[in-house]
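## Example pair
The file below holds two records. Each record gives the amino-acid sequence first, followed by its structure token line.
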Amino acid sequence: MVSTIIDSDSSPFAQLCRAAMLVEFAIKATWALPTDHSAISKCPALVDQMCDFMFVVDREGSGDKQADYSWIGSQALARSAAFVLLDFFACPEKLSGQAGYVMSPGAKSEDEVCMTNRAMVMTKELAYQTHSLVQKLIPSMDTDELSSSYFSQISPHILDLVYSALATFYWFAAEEGNGAYQHHIYDMRQFLGSMGSRWRLANEYLGLVGYHDSNNRAEFLT
């Protein structure tokens, strides 16, 4: 059961394992959504569980006055799990029954409408939270005294989260105008570029950014 994984008195590694369980729950939920309409009604509770867990690990991670990067892994994985699940609901298409949006009364169930509204708000909030985390990490990357061990302290699990948040900012930039999110996008790209010196996966994610940038998407796909 999902409700058994919250524990506010655990080590960073134990919480990392619990965050990995949330990723598993999110993946299984997305597998079930296209064929099992009842799975939609279970998603709000799973999202609540993710929010509760994020609150716990964020509180634990902010408790130490000295820089402690041991909580970044669980913080990032929990948010990545939320992105995986919410992505299914952020699109206005209906999920139940056949794929595609149907222009008729009741095309989307009440559960689907509620989750879509929640997904739109929460997806943007997760992106902002990720940007705030990146802003805390970037200054240390820019110092001349930076040692290679600094990058080793930052969990590579943050890379998937940053990519998801970056894709979200590109999405809203295309919808609302690039100017409003330009500095968020710049910071995210800078972070991935810097992390690429330690984790090659960061460069892979940075290479995929072109797909989400509406200014060069056509060129990227050719």
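Second record, same layout:
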Amino acid sequence: LAGPCRTAGLAAGLLALLFCRVLLALRKGLARLGAPVFALAVGGVATALVLGYAELFHYEGLRAFCGTGAAQISVALSGGDLPWWAFAMKAALTLLTLAGGFKGGEIMPVLAIGACLGVALADGAAALGATEVARGVLAVAVMAAFFAGCTNCPLTAGMFVLELLGPWALAVSVPAVTAAFLVARSTSLYPTSLPHWSTTPTFPPAPSGGRRPCR
């Protein structure tokens, strides 16, 4: 399972990188409107339009992707059926909500996006005949990997699946989490979790009467 999980982790890392950068760009764009109330208004109107047009064109099922995403996580981890675009729809609605300044938390939606992506990747691999990995297994691995990529917290992602699902979940998640973290380590939903790498070497002060080290 290490190979498929590692590949899925790379996909999760790329999506996490895109997700965080799009969210940052949306927030910067809405910040130009001035008062936060304007950002709230734009985010609310955009979300309402998406859901309204979805119902107009008979895509009422999109409303299922509102909320925390707990329902999608439950279906994904049990190996159930989800549309291949479930991760994209949940990501789009989450971006609109967070960029607009609405409060509701990021953790559950991020886990839901990852779980849905895992199901989509498992179905895609099966359709191509590349590999046979159970939906539920890949959903667990990619859920943890996407969380690690979005938060820059791989250890936290590992502890999540270990406490929720047990040692087997941690074992299948480690390759995916590692790959996602390496891909998306330059970005995060939480800027304080990003390391500040120094490119300038530092040296201890020279002892009195001694020479300073050459640079």
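Notes on the second record: The two ends are 47 Å apart (CA to CA). Residues 2-192 form a domain with the Clc chloride channel fold (CATH 1.10.3080.10).
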